[in-house]
Amino acid sequence: MEEKQKNPVQQPVKPTKINTYYGIAVVASVMLFASGWAFGGGKINLSNIKKGNVSNSSNIDYTSVQEIQDLLKNNYDGKIEDQKILDGIKSGIAKASGDPYTEYFNIEDSKSFQEELSGSFEGIGAELGKEGANIVIISPIAGSPAEKAGIKPKDILVKIDEKSASDITISEAVKLIRGKAGTDVKLTLARDGNKVETTITRGKISIPSVKWEIKDGIGYLTVSRFSDDTPTLALQAADEFKNAGVRGVVLDMRSDPGGLLDSAVKLSSLWLDNGKTILLEKRGGKIEKTYKATGVPTLKGIKTVVLINEGSASASEITAGALHDNGVATLMGTKSYGKGSVQQILQLDGGGTLKVTIARWYTPNDKNIDKEGISPDKEVKISEDDIKNKLDPQKQAATNFLK
C-alpha cells in the first residue's frame, strides 16, 4: 500500500540484443505501497550481474497462445486492446515462475514503480508482502494514513473495496489500493482469525529515510527504509553522535521493509572496519559476490542495540545480520520478517520492466534467513495495552541496556 526503492549510480541497462542481460541487483524489501512502495527505497544500486544467455530457440509451442488470442478476439463480446493482451502474456510468463517477487511491469506500472522508489507518493502508506496466495501487511509507515487507521503487521488483505485480494500479485494490489490523496479505499482484513473492515483516506506520503536525536547521552537512529538518501543522512547522524560523545546508539529498524543493497552496506560500514563481511550473495548455492565494509567506521566501538520486529525485512535484515554476526551490536525486539532473496531489474525495449529473483543473500555467518527471519538476542514484545497507552517497551529496554 505504500511504495518504495533507488541509488545514484546508474539506470537499468537495456538487454543487449537477445543474448546478454545486465541489470540492477536490488535486495527487495517486500513491496512498499503508496498504495504500496515497491521494495526498498532510494536509488538502485548497480551490481555487476553475471551475463546470461538467452537462446532464440525454445521448446515451447506458442501456436496455442496465438490460437487463444485469435479465438478471444473473434468471439469475445467486447473489445480487448492488443497491448493489454501482450501485457497479459508477459505478466503470465513472469508469474509462471511461482516466485512472488518475480514480476513484469508494463509502462504505467513501471512509472509508478519508479515513483515509489523516490519515497514520495500518494496512497495509504503500508508495505505489502505475499505469503502463499495471500497479500499481507508487512507494516504501516510511521505517521501514514494506514498507521492512523490501525493497520497492523501480519494483517491479511481479504478485499480491496469490493474486489477479492486472493491470489493477486503485489503490484495488482498496489494498483487497487493506491489513488489520489483525499480519496478513500475500503480494506477488508483478516486479523487473528477475525474480520476487520476499515476505510482509509489516501494521503501524500513523503518521508526522509533516516531520523535521529540525542537524548541523555544516547543516540537514537531510526531508519524507515533504505533509500538513496540513507547513507548521507546516516553519516550525518553518526558524526553528530561521535562529536557529542554518546555512550551508546540505538539503531531502530522496526517496520523497515528494506530497500537498496548499497545503502545497507554503507549503513553497516559505520560500525565495521574495512574488509569485514556484510553479506554473501549466492546463486545456485555458490557464492557470486561478497559485500564488505568500506569507508570510515565512525561508530566503531560504541555500544549499540539494534531494534527489529516482524516488519523488519530485506535490507534491514542485512544490516541487523551484519552487525550481529560481526559482534558489534545486540539485537532486541521480535523476530524479523524473513526476506532473503535478491532481485534484478531489467529495462525492456518496450518500456516495461522485469523484476526477477536472481540470487539469495546470506549473513556473514553463512545463514540465509528467507522465510525464517532473524531472532533477537533479547526478545521484547509490545502488547495491545502498550500500544493503547503509547508505551514502547522495546525502545525502553534498549535504553536501559545502554545505560
Structure description:
This protein has 403 residues and is of the alpha+beta class. It has a domain at 207-340 and 359-402: Alpha-Beta Complex (2-enoyl-CoA Hydratase, Chain A, domain 1). It contains 10 helices and 21 strands. The strands form 4 sheets. Strands 2, 5, 6, 7, 8, 9 and 10 form a 7-stranded antiparallel β-sheet that branches. Helix 6 runs parallel beside helix 7 (261-268) and helix 7 (261-268) packs parallel to helix 8 (315-325).
Bulk shape? globular
Radius of gyration: 21 Å
N-to-C span: 38 Å
- Sheet bearing the most strands, described? 7 strands, antiparallel
What percent of the residues sit in helical stretches (DSSP H or I)? Answer: 10-25%
* Beta strand %: 25-35%
Number of helices: 10
Using the 3D structure, state the CATH architecture of the domain at 207-340 and 359-402.
Alpha-Beta Complex
What assembly state would you assign to the polypeptide chains in this entry?
single chain
Structural category:
alpha+beta
Q: Report the CATH superfamily of the domain at 207-340 and 359-402.
A: 2-enoyl-CoA Hydratase, Chain A, domain 1
On the 0 to 100 scale, the average pLDDT is: 84
Number of strands: 21
Unreliable stretches covering 5 or more consecutive residues: 1-57
CATH topology of the domain at 207-340 and 359-402: 2-enoyl-CoA Hydratase, Chain A, domain 1
The top-level CATH class of the domain at 207-340 and 359-402 is: Alpha Beta
